[in-house]
Amino acid sequence: MESVMKPIRIMKNDREEEDGGEPLSPMSRLFHKPDSNVYIIAMLGFAAPINPEVVKHHFAHTFAKHPRFSSLQVVDEKHGGELRRVKTEVNIDNHVIIPRLDPNMDSPDKFVEDYVSNLSKTTISMSIPLWDFHVLEVKTSEAEATAVLRVHHSIGDGISLMSLLLSCSRQVSDPESLPTIPTARKSNRSKKNNESLLGFLRFLLIKLGLLVLLCWNTGVDVVMFVLTFFFLNDTENPLKAQKLGPSARRFVHTTLSFDDVKLVKNAMAVTVNDVLVGVTQAALSRYLNRKYGMCRDENDDGSRVKNNLPKNIRFRASYVVNTRPFSKIQTFEDMIKEGSKAKWGNHISSILFPFTIALRDDPLDYVRDAKLHSDRKKASLEAKCTYFMARLLLKFYPTMALFVHVVSYVNKIKIILAVDETMIPDPQQLCDDFQISLKLIKDATP
Prior knowledge:
Number of helices: 12
Order of helices and strands: EEHEHEEEHEEHHHEHHEHEHHEEH
Radius of gyration: 24 Å
Strand order of the largest sheet: 1-4-5-2
Distance between the termini: 46 Å
Structural class: alpha+beta
């Protein structure tokens, strides 16, 4: 992704159509800036071999009919050079890539890892819609075949893509039916509390207190965001990227037990996200401690090791959040419906989430810290404010050598790391740190 995509430029004259297509939103235009030219890369493992012709046929009736997957992104000179989407005919063969593979390759897992990493080094030509689908017909340790979907982030965010992928799938029990999406139940607790005058007054006082807390937290967070934008940098550390924007990435992953995560969650009365953020802090602390020590001095069983970490490290994550009024994944039909609040597109923002980088005597302290900061961020409008500021500035993008993605499926949690190899040459070691950190936190759970 280091090379800059050059949009096609279209010149209009009086004989051409006046309809120049749909203009890109400010957030979508942000993902075309050289310092934030980002693709979403999704890896899908299949329990059976993939039939490429079935894939092409299905995509011709799904992706190829979606407005954003069937449009070029062009520069309209008549409207000040703004980027616009212009409808085009989709040639599925340009988007479904089926490389010829050696069936006798030494390490299929390493091949898939290298193949996906190489996708981060290239871009899709802007002469076609900005997506492609790679079918890797090779058996790995976890799948009979692997598919890789690459989509430019200007087309939509993760929530949008997940709703589209779900619309392309069917239930095992009923091949004609779309998968069902669980919906949250509404609570009647507030209604019951308001039945009496005393309960109503208590309700108002609580709401007033929450409003004051919301305003205070939001003000502090916005000030910190502005200070960070201008000069308040994180402490120099081995994980801090040295240049702006995206770079070539290596993608590695590890699997955690969802049952172990839920055990900690229930014992500590926190959320799944709190546990996973705590595990991430613990894993990064172990990894950085090793880097600062410049030697392998930790024990494989996770027992106490020499502390090489500097004190009071300022280390913050750019925590991506969904700004839609719904946190759950919505159906594809609902997202494209006129006037829907669950809109398709890039409705995301980020918050600065402070990480505690330290070796803790009690591993549960990582989860406690995560919950403390998470609860505070929930009582803040930081995400809404930074989304608005990003739309105005169109240039803020943090420097990151590491992306941590978390996906849950049935009783497993996948931790996917996208790393800059120049900064993190040993990503598998970091995967091991996630495994050890969860084990330590689980073992410490009462």
